[in-house]
Amino acid sequence: MSFRPDPFLLCLLATLGVATVLPCRGAAVPFFTTLAVVLIALMFFLQGARLSRAAVVEGMTAWKLHLTILGCTFLLFPLLGLGLRAVMPGLLSNDVWMGVLFLCCLPSTVQSSIAFTSIARGNVPAAVCSATASNIAGIFITPILVGLVLAKQGGQTGGGLSIILQLLLPFVAGQVLQPWVGEWARRNRKLLSFSDRGSILVVVYTAFSEAVVNGLWHRLPPTQLAAIAAVDCGLLAAVLLVTRYGSQMMGWSREDEITIIFCGSKKTLASGVPMANVLFPSATVGLVVLPLMLYHQIQLFVCAILARRFAREAESHE
After folding, report:
1. Any transmembrane segments, and where (predicted)?
2. pTM score, whole prediction
3. Which of 34, 54, 207, 313 is the most buried (most CB within 10 A)?
């Protein structure tokens, strides 16, 4: 099976290249910083506007499945991250370890979790509801988890007021105004998807520009990139093993097992980068999001292979 890299990841890599060669400096810094804040608020407003309340209510009937997936996302991942940090504290720098722990506290993806579950012949309606519930819960749970986890590790995050103003308030406003703007937002999903991704690119450029000015690439040798990739692969492998065999031990059906595997092992880049921009000091955001960016591509590659394998197994059973 041929593998094509995610086009959005290629855009992110190009953004890193531009930030490395032409970082924003001087008078451009306040402009890009303000633009990033506005785009983050707009992104979460549109997420609230697009979210269908009916789909959430419909999916609440499978609450045991959803709790299992949420447990993998918000409990298993942080425990694994803390365990790796305790076993190998010197493998990564402190800022990069903060990025790994931040990655562990993020919610699941939506689009790719549903897509891989569908390819693998899993429980697609449950995947829709679980992935959506994970993203909603993540807006509230992730900042709390990050604060708890990093407080134990000596890290610092942004204040609660920034979280409320930039994340929660726009999301709630989108939900309140959904009767008027929800249908328009769903009709223009593709256009708004480009807007969301453009917002992330602006946030990444702003964060990495400051990191480059502060000597990012002098502080991060190639061996650190290899170590980050190794830690990401270890996290993903551990979660995949736990979700696969844990689902079988708990007696879930094959369709539900597939849903748990794909929804429970994914981490969102789309919400993660804006959250990092809000939660962490601007000087450290560039390093913090590196583990997430690498994990994003690794999870797409591995889950694509697994989805095809599950699909072939389903065809052979039929």
Report:
1. 31-51, 63-84, 96-116, 128-151, 157-177, 198-217, 223-243, 275-295
2. 0.76
3. 207
Say how far apart CA 138 and CA 280 lie, in whole Å: 16
Return the half-sphere exposure (C-beta side, CA atoms, 13 A cut-off) of residue 243: 30
Q: What is the pLDDT of residues 65-117, one digit of tens each?
A: 888 999 999 999 999 999 999 999 989 988 889 999 999 999 998 777 877 88
Listed residue (144, 71, 148) closest to 108, CA to CA: 71
CATH code assigned to 7-312:
1.20.1530.20
Sequence letter at residue 30? P
Number of other CB atoms surrounding residue 241 within 10 Å: 12
Domain segments of the chain as ranges? 7-312
Query: Scanning the structure block, which residue is given the tokens 């955001």?
Result: 285
> Using an 8 Å Cβ cutoff, are 98 and 153 in contact?
yes
